[in-house]
Specification:
The complex is a heterohexamer, with two copies of chain A (102 residues), two copies of chain B (140 residues) and two copies of chain C (130 residues). Chain A has four helices and five strands; from the N terminus they run E-H-E-H-E-H-E-H-E. With 102 residues, chain A is an alpha/beta fold. Chain B has 140 residues and is α/β, with parallel strands linked by helices. In chain B, strand 4 and strand 5 form a beta hairpin. Classes of the chains: A alpha/beta (102), B alpha/beta (140), C alpha/beta (130).
């Protein structure tokens, strides 16, 4: 009974990730995709907050979205798991519900 | 849908009204959903709390010329939609209190039709708990 | 598992429809059932048959239409949202005295009850938006 | 003064088209010249004649069309953006083998050069978007 | 030769106002309209930043947008000037160019 | 447009590529604008700096299936569009340096066709100054 939260917007542009992190419970998961993948990259002003969230939540990032934006595994914060669309589907089935932070 | 399964449905509202249509069209879904006898909750977080602001006024002549759909929220009680969760922290960041919102109520048939508030002011912590129990979440 | 999908944005302007397509394809590849895909808000614009996208880019509408045919998908366009935005099938056009219709094969127009039903019947609902 | 306007979003989903309409009307009331209104991105969706909005709400498309007639406005829809999104006039439909067109009276389809020209010729450009 | 900046998004949702304030010069003007009007209201966590901006910029807010959102003159930060669409047009003509922060 | 007025045109890019179409369609305007002999500048601020990221890859099979339009930026130099201002603070907040961006250059006809960078790294302060001088600003 844990929820998969999805965030598709850049944390620099919109407040979706911030709200998601504020309102998601320990044990839930956060999938970063589309422009949301920037939150998964190293060295940004958001990296510390995302790293802190990993203390009690799983964080995933969509590899095809990273690639489109010129990013690779090297750019991703340690501990964030990279998934493709098949992995996205698995997450949706593994968690009890999906909540989109639009 | 008699005899069917009852699921926990949540409608997540995080956007202000008028600037975009999400608030209005979200409300249209909620009204239809009322006929399906599910366990319905509405969450108003972030700019979503502005959807419930009192005294909304739009006119074609001196106003923005869009339809003022805020009276529809007042009908939710009649449709047995009585769990409107408003996040306290979102109100505070915006300098608002419950007094700035419409007074939304319903008549409780289990309590001699007493009039009760539909808006439930909850902390971030409490709202996170409510969200975590949901089975189907509609975002707009 | 039985999955339902809601798409809130139109083609090209936002990535939502692309992400949803890739998600649905992956789900079908894994043998999941797609109970319904519901197009709401500007998402209804994914159902127009009048697009002529650049030849070196993907054709968002054709892709949905073809996938629908291949897997017998139920692609539902919300009637209220569609009427606001100018998406009509032949019947709607006739009934409303409009001189043209623009819905592509593979989509059908229906009410919001179809979205609620999808939420009830499917094991999971996934929403793609802005 | 000579004013030009660019609109980046479609009707109803965003307030952009409403704000632009109210702005243009106020400018005309003050005696300014509207050199051109250019519809780009999803803004092209403001030109469809197939909408059937709820009767208790404004009709965004009709409003533009009527204002255009009254003041002889030059409403230009970007052809590239329009083709991506399924907005076509009769000529475009014929040329591309499409079975319908959907542009309302008062709008014309043309190229991006019309936007640049508006930037050059007008005294001010005002952009409405998301 | 000063610029009119327009902001139509809520400062809580998007970073448009913040960027606008960071990148607009002294002597320029900022018009808050559509969801941007929330930045003009009293008591928010943004009020101090908007008030500070008024030390070297003029700030305007669109009255019809305020009214739609349930706000009146009482709710507006002191020193912000309220305008209607006709006032918007005047601002566009008074300033040398208009820059939209979308 | 010979003999015509030359205006300062700025294209303001604040959004990331692919998530929305604004970056791509903004670039299409810029390419058309090149034929009009105006004084063209491009500003890349906030998530707009991501538009210039090197190594963008999209494929229909394993990728997002959208068109990779980043090579088009490399053609701007040939169209005499050589003033691409990138805000330093925006790069820094994102953990990026110029090395993470595409190397965009042009050949300077006034300097024996020497190859020069089109990307100009500017501080917020400097960019504010450039913006303040503009006569026509296109936002997307």
């Amino acid at each position: 009974m844990a929820i998969l939260h999805t965030v598709n917007k850049s944390p620099f542009e919109k407040n979706a990730l911030e709200s998601c992190l504020n309102l998601s419970k320990a044990g839930s998961a956060v999938l970063l995709f589309e422009d949301g993948v920037y939150a998964a990259t190293k060295g940004t002003v958001w990296a510390a907050k995302v790293t802190a969230a990993m203390s009690d939540k799983k964080v995933y990032v969509m590899t095809p979205d990273l690639a489109a934006r010129g990013m690779k595994a090297d750019n991703v914060i340690d501990g964030i798991e990279m998934v493709d669309y098949a992995g996205f589907v698995d997450l949706v089935t593994e968690y009890s519900a999906t909540q989109a932070w639009l | 849908m008699e005899g069917g399964e009852v699921k926990k449905f949540m409608y997540l509202n995080r956007k202000a009204p008028y600037g975009t249509i999400y608030a209005l069209e979200s409300l249209e879904v909620v009204l239809v959903a009322a006929a399906f006898d599910q366990d319905v909750s509405l969450a108003f977080v972030d700019d979503g709390v502005y959807q419930l602001a009192a005294n909304q006024e739009t006119t074609p002549t001196t106003g923005i010329g869009m339809k003022n759909f805020s009276p529809t929220y007042k009908a939710l009680g009649d449709y047995d939609i009585t769990k409107l969760y408003v996040e306290k922290e979102s109100l505070e960041e915006r300098g608002l209190t419950l007094d700035n919102l419409m007074a939304l109520t319903y008549e409780d048939e289990d309590d001699d039709w007493a009039e009760k508030p539909s808006i439930h002011l909850v902390s971030r912590e409490e709202l996170a708990g409510v969200m975590d129990e949901q089975e189907v979440i509609f975002s707009f | 598992m039985k999955l339902a999908v809601m798409i809130n944005e139109g083609p090209y302007q936002h990535q939502s429809s692309d992400s949803a397509y890739n998600f649905v394809k992956a789900a079908l590849d894994k043998g999941h059932e797609i109970f319904r895909i519901f197009f709401y808000h500007d998402g209804v614009n994914n159902a127009t048959r009048l697009t002529i996208p650049p030849q070196d880019d993907r054709n968002v509408i054709e892709r949905w239409s073809a996938l629908s045919k291949e897997h017998n998908l139920d692609l539902v366009v919300c009637i209220a949202a569609a009427q606001r935005r100018g998406l009509l099938d032949e019947n709607e056009a006739k009934r409303n005295g409009k001189t043209a219709d623009n819905i592509v094969d593979g989509f059908r127009i229906s009410g919001l009850g179809q979205l609620i039903e999808a939420g009830i019947q499917a094991d999971r609902l996934v929403v793609f938006g802005d």
